[in-house]
Amino acid sequence: MLEIKDLVVSYGGVPALFGVSINVNDGEVVSVVGSNGAGKSTLLKAISGLMKPEGGEVVLDGKSIHNLKAHEIVKQGIVMVPEGRHLFGQMSIVQNLMMGAYQVTDKKVNADRLEKVYSIFPRIKEREKQLAGTLSGGEQQMVAIARGLMSEPRILMLDEPSLGLAPIMVKEMFRMIKDIKQTGVTILLVEQRLKDALILSDRAYVLQTGKIVMEGKGEEFMNSPEVRQAYLGL
Predict the structure, then answer these.
(1) What's residue 63's pLDDT?
(2) In what order do the strands lie in the sheet with 63-64?
(3) Strand locations in the chain, DSSP E?
(4) Sign of dihedral through CA atoms 211, 217, 221, 227?
(5) How far is the C-alpha of 221 from the C-alpha of 231, rounded, in Å?
(6) How far apart are alpha carbons 30 and 217 in whole angstroms?
(7) How far is CA 215 from CA 46, 102, 129, 132, 155, in A?
(8) N or C: less crowded end of the chain, CB within 10 Å?
(9) Rounded Cα distance, 201 and 204, in Å
C-alpha cells in the first residue's frame, strides 16, 4: 500500500532523515517510535508533502507521490493530524470538522461523514457548537483527529496524539485510535509513549537520529528484554 524507500530529508541543508525505508500495509497500525529529534515528525511531513525529500521515494499503490503537492496527497487518501492540533480556536467544533471535508461539496456526503466521526467521538457531538478554543487539551485532540477523518482517509497519520494530555485522556485516546482501526482505516502513528503505541500496533519501527535501527511486530518488541532495555526504557 504505502512504501517509503530510502528517504533523505534535510532542514536547511542539515540532514534529518538518512535513507529511511518503511512500509505500511492495508488495515495495519504501524508505529514509528523514538526519542525527540529522531526525525519522526519529519518523516510524516515528507509523506504528506509538507517537506520535499532530497532523495528516495514515497510510493502509494505502486505509484510515486513524493512530487505531489500536499493537497494532492490528501486527495490520494493520505491525511496527517499534526502535533499540536492546530485547530481554529474561534470557530465551533462542527466548523473545524467541516474544514476536513473542504474538498467535498455534496451536503449529504458531509452529513454522513459527520455522523460517522460523531459515533467515534460522542463527546464532541454533545458540544458541536462550542468554540474549539474553549475545549480541554484532550477534547481538542479528539476534534483534530475527527477533522482528519472527515476527509475519509485511506491512511491516517497521527503525530504525537497523546502529547500534553492527562493520563486518563491518554488511555481514552488510544482506545479511540483502536476504534478507528476497526473501521478499516490504516494508521501510521508517531508516538513517544512507546509502550502504549506498541501494544496498539501490528508492527513498529524504531527511528534513531534519522535512521531506522529496528523493526518488527509490536508484540515482539514488548516481549524482547533487549529491546525493552535498550530502546523502551522498561
Answers:
(1) 95
(2) 14-24, 2-11, 55-60, 63-64
(3) 2-11, 14-24, 29-33, 55-60, 63-64, 78-81, 155-159, 186-191, 203-208, 211-217
(4) negative
(5) 9
(6) 9
(7) 20, 36, 43, 38, 20
(8) C
(9) 7
